[in-house]
Design brief:
Structural class: alpha/beta
Number of helices: 13
CATH topology of the largest domain: Rossmann fold
Distance between the termini: 45 Å
Length: 299
Protein backbone atom coordinates (compact mmCIF):
# COMPACT_ATOMS: atom_id res chain seq x y z
CA UNK A 1 0.00 0.00 0.00
CA UNK A 2 1.37 3.41 -0.92
CA UNK A 3 1.89 5.96 1.81
CA UNK A 4 -0.88 8.54 1.85
CA UNK A 5 0.47 12.08 1.61
CA UNK A 6 -2.14 14.67 2.64
CA UNK A 7 -2.45 17.74 0.44
CA UNK A 8 -1.98 21.42 1.30
CA UNK A 9 -1.32 20.66 4.97
CA UNK A 10 0.64 23.81 5.79
CA UNK A 11 -1.88 26.02 3.99
CA UNK A 12 -4.76 24.29 5.78
CA UNK A 13 -3.16 25.05 9.15
CA UNK A 14 -2.53 28.61 8.01
CA UNK A 15 -6.14 29.33 7.05
CA UNK A 16 -7.68 27.52 10.03
CA UNK A 17 -5.24 29.27 12.39
CA UNK A 18 -5.68 26.81 15.30
CA UNK A 19 -5.01 27.98 18.84
CA UNK A 20 -4.15 26.09 22.01
CA UNK A 21 -7.22 24.65 23.71
CA UNK A 22 -9.50 24.88 20.66
CA UNK A 23 -11.75 22.13 19.35
CA UNK A 24 -11.93 20.99 15.74
CA UNK A 25 -13.80 18.53 13.57
CA UNK A 26 -12.13 16.72 10.68
CA UNK A 27 -15.12 15.18 8.94
CA UNK A 28 -13.10 13.30 6.30
CA UNK A 29 -10.21 12.33 8.55
CA UNK A 30 -8.89 9.57 6.28
CA UNK A 31 -5.47 8.47 7.53
CA UNK A 32 -5.01 11.38 9.91
CA UNK A 33 -2.56 13.61 8.06
CA UNK A 34 -4.35 16.92 8.64
CA UNK A 35 -5.76 15.80 12.00
CA UNK A 36 -2.25 15.13 13.34
CA UNK A 37 -1.16 18.68 12.61
CA UNK A 38 -4.34 20.15 14.07
CA UNK A 39 -4.03 18.09 17.25
CA UNK A 40 -0.46 19.25 17.68
CA UNK A 41 -1.58 22.87 17.22
CA UNK A 42 -4.46 22.77 19.73
CA UNK A 43 -2.40 20.94 22.33
CA UNK A 44 -3.47 18.55 25.04
CA UNK A 45 -6.19 20.91 26.25
CA UNK A 46 -7.72 21.02 22.77
CA UNK A 47 -9.86 18.31 21.23
CA UNK A 48 -10.37 16.69 17.84
CA UNK A 49 -13.53 15.03 16.55
CA UNK A 50 -12.59 12.75 13.66
CA UNK A 51 -15.06 11.21 11.23
CA UNK A 52 -14.73 9.00 8.17
CA UNK A 53 -17.02 6.53 6.44
CA UNK A 54 -14.26 4.18 5.29
CA UNK A 55 -13.72 1.20 7.61
CA UNK A 56 -10.05 0.92 6.66
CA UNK A 57 -9.51 4.60 7.47
CA UNK A 58 -11.25 4.25 10.84
CA UNK A 59 -9.01 1.30 11.71
CA UNK A 60 -5.93 3.31 10.72
CA UNK A 61 -7.07 6.35 12.73
CA UNK A 62 -7.79 4.22 15.79
CA UNK A 63 -4.28 2.80 15.66
CA UNK A 64 -2.62 6.14 14.91
CA UNK A 65 -4.25 7.98 17.80
CA UNK A 66 -4.48 5.09 20.27
CA UNK A 67 -2.49 6.97 22.91
CA UNK A 68 -4.33 10.29 22.51
CA UNK A 69 -6.87 11.22 25.15
CA UNK A 70 -8.11 14.32 23.38
CA UNK A 71 -9.59 12.76 20.25
CA UNK A 72 -12.75 10.85 19.35
CA UNK A 73 -13.06 8.71 16.22
CA UNK A 74 -16.42 7.93 14.65
CA UNK A 75 -17.32 6.03 11.49
CA UNK A 76 -19.84 8.22 9.71
CA UNK A 77 -20.62 9.77 6.34
CA UNK A 78 -20.29 13.53 6.83
CA UNK A 79 -23.22 14.03 4.46
CA UNK A 80 -25.49 12.00 6.73
CA UNK A 81 -23.97 13.11 10.02
CA UNK A 82 -26.23 14.21 12.86
CA UNK A 83 -24.12 17.32 13.29
CA UNK A 84 -25.80 18.79 16.35
CA UNK A 85 -25.55 15.56 18.35
CA UNK A 86 -22.27 14.23 16.94
CA UNK A 87 -20.16 16.90 18.67
CA UNK A 88 -20.40 20.17 20.59
CA UNK A 89 -19.76 23.54 18.99
CA UNK A 90 -16.25 23.60 17.53
CA UNK A 91 -13.76 26.27 16.49
CA UNK A 92 -12.71 24.64 13.20
CA UNK A 93 -14.29 22.32 10.65
CA UNK A 94 -12.16 20.71 7.97
CA UNK A 95 -13.00 18.47 5.02
CA UNK A 96 -10.75 16.98 2.33
CA UNK A 97 -13.16 15.84 -0.39
CA UNK A 98 -10.98 13.35 -2.19
CA UNK A 99 -10.02 9.71 -2.59
CA UNK A 100 -7.03 8.66 -0.51
CA UNK A 101 -3.96 6.95 -1.92
CA UNK A 102 -4.62 3.72 0.06
CA UNK A 103 -8.12 3.54 -1.44
CA UNK A 104 -6.78 3.96 -4.97
CA UNK A 105 -3.86 1.64 -4.32
CA UNK A 106 -6.01 -1.29 -3.18
CA UNK A 107 -7.12 -3.24 -6.30
CA UNK A 108 -9.97 -4.90 -4.41
CA UNK A 109 -11.59 -1.49 -3.82
CA UNK A 110 -12.06 -0.97 -7.56
CA UNK A 111 -11.35 2.77 -7.66
CA UNK A 112 -8.58 2.66 -10.26
CA UNK A 113 -8.71 1.59 -13.90
CA UNK A 114 -4.94 1.06 -13.81
CA UNK A 115 -5.27 -1.95 -11.51
CA UNK A 116 -7.31 -5.09 -12.03
CA UNK A 117 -10.09 -5.34 -9.51
CA UNK A 118 -13.86 -5.72 -9.06
CA UNK A 119 -16.20 -2.87 -9.95
CA UNK A 120 -16.76 -1.75 -6.37
CA UNK A 121 -15.80 1.91 -5.65
CA UNK A 122 -17.54 2.05 -2.27
CA UNK A 123 -15.95 4.33 0.30
CA UNK A 124 -18.24 2.82 2.92
CA UNK A 125 -17.82 -0.92 2.48
CA UNK A 126 -21.04 -1.49 4.40
CA UNK A 127 -23.33 0.07 1.81
CA UNK A 128 -25.07 -2.02 -0.85
CA UNK A 129 -24.67 -0.03 -4.07
CA UNK A 130 -21.49 -0.67 -6.07
CA UNK A 131 -20.18 0.41 -9.46
CA UNK A 132 -20.99 -3.11 -10.68
CA UNK A 133 -24.68 -2.47 -9.96
CA UNK A 134 -24.72 0.78 -11.92
CA UNK A 135 -22.79 -0.59 -14.90
CA UNK A 136 -24.79 -3.80 -15.16
CA UNK A 137 -28.29 -2.80 -14.06
CA UNK A 138 -28.92 0.89 -14.77
CA UNK A 139 -30.57 1.94 -18.00
CA UNK A 140 -28.49 3.28 -20.85
CA UNK A 141 -29.96 6.73 -20.31
CA UNK A 142 -29.21 6.74 -16.59
CA UNK A 143 -25.61 5.65 -17.18
CA UNK A 144 -25.17 8.37 -19.79
CA UNK A 145 -26.60 10.97 -17.39
CA UNK A 146 -24.22 9.88 -14.62
CA UNK A 147 -21.17 10.07 -16.89
CA UNK A 148 -22.18 13.48 -18.22
CA UNK A 149 -23.32 15.11 -14.98
CA UNK A 150 -20.66 13.76 -12.62
CA UNK A 151 -17.78 13.27 -15.02
CA UNK A 152 -18.51 16.01 -17.55
CA UNK A 153 -17.84 13.32 -20.14
CA UNK A 154 -18.88 14.55 -23.60
CA UNK A 155 -18.86 11.02 -25.00
CA UNK A 156 -21.28 9.84 -22.30
CA UNK A 157 -23.94 8.52 -24.69
CA UNK A 158 -21.44 6.62 -26.80
CA UNK A 159 -19.87 5.06 -23.71
CA UNK A 160 -23.25 4.15 -22.22
CA UNK A 161 -24.25 2.46 -25.46
CA UNK A 162 -21.02 0.45 -25.49
CA UNK A 163 -21.57 -0.63 -21.87
CA UNK A 164 -25.14 -1.79 -22.53
CA UNK A 165 -24.10 -3.63 -25.71
CA UNK A 166 -21.33 -5.47 -23.87
CA UNK A 167 -23.38 -6.49 -20.83
CA UNK A 168 -26.02 -8.12 -23.03
CA UNK A 169 -23.56 -10.95 -23.60
CA UNK A 170 -22.11 -11.15 -20.08
CA UNK A 171 -21.80 -8.92 -17.01
CA UNK A 172 -19.00 -6.36 -16.88
CA UNK A 173 -17.09 -7.39 -13.77
CA UNK A 174 -13.66 -5.76 -13.59
CA UNK A 175 -12.05 -2.35 -13.74
CA UNK A 176 -9.89 -3.38 -16.70
CA UNK A 177 -12.87 -4.68 -18.61
CA UNK A 178 -14.79 -1.43 -18.15
CA UNK A 179 -11.76 0.72 -18.98
CA UNK A 180 -11.24 -1.25 -22.20
CA UNK A 181 -14.88 -0.79 -23.22
CA UNK A 182 -14.62 2.96 -22.64
CA UNK A 183 -11.34 3.24 -24.53
CA UNK A 184 -12.62 1.33 -27.55
CA UNK A 185 -15.89 3.25 -27.66
CA UNK A 186 -14.28 6.68 -27.62
CA UNK A 187 -11.06 6.07 -29.50
CA UNK A 188 -9.45 8.79 -27.41
CA UNK A 189 -5.74 9.12 -26.85
CA UNK A 190 -3.63 11.64 -24.99
CA UNK A 191 -2.20 12.43 -21.56
CA UNK A 192 -5.48 11.73 -19.76
CA UNK A 193 -6.73 8.14 -19.89
CA UNK A 194 -10.08 7.84 -21.73
CA UNK A 195 -11.67 6.19 -18.68
CA UNK A 196 -10.68 8.90 -16.20
CA UNK A 197 -13.90 10.92 -16.30
CA UNK A 198 -16.15 7.87 -16.38
CA UNK A 199 -14.49 6.30 -13.34
CA UNK A 200 -14.79 9.61 -11.50
CA UNK A 201 -18.47 9.83 -12.38
CA UNK A 202 -19.21 6.29 -11.24
CA UNK A 203 -17.35 6.83 -7.96
CA UNK A 204 -19.34 10.01 -7.28
CA UNK A 205 -22.60 8.23 -8.06
CA UNK A 206 -21.80 5.16 -5.96
CA UNK A 207 -20.92 7.24 -2.91
CA UNK A 208 -23.43 10.06 -3.35
CA UNK A 209 -20.54 12.49 -3.00
CA UNK A 210 -22.15 15.68 -4.28
CA UNK A 211 -25.31 15.16 -2.25
CA UNK A 212 -23.19 14.54 0.84
CA UNK A 213 -21.22 17.74 0.25
CA UNK A 214 -24.40 19.78 -0.24
CA UNK A 215 -25.85 18.47 3.02
CA UNK A 216 -22.63 19.08 4.93
CA UNK A 217 -22.31 22.64 3.64
CA UNK A 218 -25.76 23.40 5.02
CA UNK A 219 -24.98 21.96 8.45
CA UNK A 220 -21.42 23.12 9.07
CA UNK A 221 -22.17 26.78 9.92
CA UNK A 222 -24.55 25.78 12.72
CA UNK A 223 -21.86 23.81 14.55
CA UNK A 224 -19.22 26.52 14.46
CA UNK A 225 -18.39 28.92 17.28
CA UNK A 226 -18.14 32.67 16.71
CA UNK A 227 -14.76 33.37 15.15
CA UNK A 228 -14.52 29.77 14.00
CA UNK A 229 -13.40 28.75 10.53
CA UNK A 230 -14.39 26.22 7.89
CA UNK A 231 -11.80 24.96 5.40
CA UNK A 232 -12.55 22.59 2.53
CA UNK A 233 -10.25 21.03 -0.06
CA UNK A 234 -11.93 19.91 -3.28
CA UNK A 235 -10.46 18.13 -6.28
CA UNK A 236 -12.72 18.75 -9.26
CA UNK A 237 -14.88 21.52 -10.61
CA UNK A 238 -18.22 20.06 -9.50
CA UNK A 239 -17.16 19.99 -5.85
CA UNK A 240 -15.37 23.32 -5.97
CA UNK A 241 -18.41 24.99 -7.51
CA UNK A 242 -20.62 23.81 -4.64
CA UNK A 243 -18.11 25.03 -2.04
CA UNK A 244 -17.62 28.37 -3.80
CA UNK A 245 -21.36 29.01 -4.05
CA UNK A 246 -22.05 27.99 -0.45
CA UNK A 247 -19.24 30.15 0.93
CA UNK A 248 -20.33 33.10 -1.20
CA UNK A 249 -23.87 32.82 0.21
CA UNK A 250 -22.51 32.75 3.76
CA UNK A 251 -20.48 35.89 3.10
CA UNK A 252 -23.38 37.81 1.54
CA UNK A 253 -25.76 39.97 3.62
CA UNK A 254 -29.51 39.47 3.31
CA UNK A 255 -31.29 42.33 1.54
CA UNK A 256 -34.94 43.27 1.18
CA UNK A 257 -36.76 44.05 -2.03
CA UNK A 258 -35.37 47.58 -2.00
CA UNK A 259 -31.79 46.45 -1.71
CA UNK A 260 -31.47 47.42 1.94
CA UNK A 261 -29.51 45.10 4.23
CA UNK A 262 -31.85 43.42 6.70
CA UNK A 263 -29.24 41.12 8.23
CA UNK A 264 -25.45 41.28 7.88
CA UNK A 265 -23.32 38.52 6.46
CA UNK A 266 -22.55 35.78 8.98
CA UNK A 267 -19.14 34.94 7.51
CA UNK A 268 -16.18 36.58 5.80
CA UNK A 269 -13.89 34.94 3.27
CA UNK A 270 -10.49 33.86 4.56
CA UNK A 271 -9.37 32.92 1.05
CA UNK A 272 -10.36 35.51 -1.54
CA UNK A 273 -9.34 33.03 -4.23
CA UNK A 274 -8.82 29.27 -3.88
CA UNK A 275 -5.39 28.13 -2.74
CA UNK A 276 -4.24 25.71 -5.44
CA UNK A 277 -2.21 22.59 -4.84
CA UNK A 278 -0.52 23.09 -8.21
CA UNK A 279 1.05 26.28 -6.80
CA UNK A 280 1.54 25.58 -3.08
CA UNK A 281 2.06 21.79 -2.90
CA UNK A 282 4.00 21.13 -6.09
CA UNK A 283 5.90 18.10 -4.77
CA UNK A 284 2.72 16.15 -4.07
CA UNK A 285 1.26 14.69 -7.31
CA UNK A 286 -2.12 14.16 -5.63
CA UNK A 287 -2.37 17.91 -4.94
CA UNK A 288 -2.30 18.87 -8.60
CA UNK A 289 -6.03 19.59 -8.88
CA UNK A 290 -6.65 20.47 -5.21
CA UNK A 291 -8.32 23.76 -4.26
CA UNK A 292 -8.59 25.02 -0.70
CA UNK A 293 -11.25 27.55 0.34
CA UNK A 294 -11.98 28.89 3.82
CA UNK A 295 -14.42 31.21 5.61
CA UNK A 296 -14.68 32.65 9.15
CA UNK A 297 -17.84 33.10 11.22
CA UNK A 298 -18.30 36.72 12.35
CA UNK A 299 -22.00 36.82 13.34
Amino acid sequence: MKRHTPVLVSKTIEVLHPQLGERFADVTAGYGGHASELLQAVGTNGYGYLFDKDTAAINALTKKFSTCNNVSITQADFGKLDWENAMPEVDMIFADIGVSSPQIDAPERGFSFSQLGPLDMRMNQGQDLTAYDIVNAYSQRDIADILYQYGEERASRKIAQAIVDKRQNSPIETTHELAEIITHSTGKSGKIHPATKSFQALRIAVNGELEALKNALQQMPNCLSLGGRIAIISFHSLEDRLVKQAFKALCTPTRDGFGQIVSPAKFIAVTKKPIKGSEFDVNNPRARSAKLRAVEKIN
